[in-house]
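Hi R.,

Here's the chain you asked about this morning:
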Amino acid sequence: MSRRCELTAKGPQVGHKVSHSNIKTKRRFLPNLVNVTFMSEVLGRNVRLRVSTNALKSVDHRGGLDAFLNKAGTAELSQKAVLLKRAIEKKQSATPAPVAAAS
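And the predicted structure, written out as tokens:
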């Protein structure tokens, strides 16, 4: 399993561990990934994704998984997330938007 966020494409970074005597050795900075179950209102089902905690905050800020995927570019999403995005777009285009009642 790759250590990459499925929504933001965050992955491991490379840097140095610096000792007290200033000796530098290579190390990896891994993203903080968690397994999360999101609820898609449009699809009406739960979706399990492995995302970074930063992406979790971004999804919450944008108003849910559906809003996040609609705004996100397909280049940064994983294959699973791209399929979800297409399914959400297909479902939204199939159902007409509700018209607000005029007062």
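The beta strands are 13-18, 24-29, 33-40, 45-52.

Let me know if you need anything else.
M.
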